[in-house]
Every structure is written in structure tokens, then in C-alpha cells.
Amino acid sequence: MQNFRDVDPAELRVPSRRGADPLKLQRQIARFGASATGMPPPWVYEAADGVLVVYNGITRATRIAKLAPGSMIRVEVIGKLRRTYANEPRIGDFPP
User: Fold this and answer.
1) Under a CB-based contact definition with an 8 Å cutoff, are residues 19 and 94 in contact?
2) Closest CA to 66 of 15, 23, 29, 37
3) Consecutive 10-residue runs of the chain (96 residues): their mean pLDDT?
4) How far apart are CA 14 and CA 27, in angstroms?
5) Which helix (H) or strand (E) holds 26?
6) What span, in angstroms and rounded, lies between the C-alpha atoms of 29 and 59?
């Protein structure tokens, strides 16, 4: 059973300290701009503390968070994680 949610992409946690690949982000901005039309939903896991951690779609979520702040995107929750991620960086914490 699929589990979709509408969330603010700036609130999604990232599993690494690096964030989106800058070159890939620039290519997506040039090609799609702030539009989420036709964008496949990023895959996220729900952590033990309830926050969502993005694993597939970090660049897509970053693009929308930077170019259309406050807008919501649809994500697909594909599983649960045992550890907490509340202290990990959010997509909104990375510089534009």
C-alpha cells in the first residue's frame, strides 16, 4: 500500500551533511525552474521521531524549497527508520 503525504520540502531531513549536488541542482533549475508539474514524488523514510528523511529526490526537493518557499510537494513514504533524525540538517538549512 502506497503512503503519500504533502509536505514542505524545506522541512525534510537529509541523511548526509552534503545536501544536493550543486551541478545537478543548476541543471534542474535551468530545465524545470520552480515547477513541480510532472515531478515524481521523492522517496522518504519516516524516522522514529516522526520526521521525514529524503533518500531519493534530494535535488528535486531542494529545487522546490529554494525557488518556491512555503509550497508543498507530494512525497512517498517507503518505510520506517529505527533511529531519530530530528537533529540532522534540513533541506532548508543548506545555503541556496
Assistant:
1) yes
2) 29
3) 93 87 93 91 96 95 94 96 94 82
4) 20
5) helix 22-32
6) 10
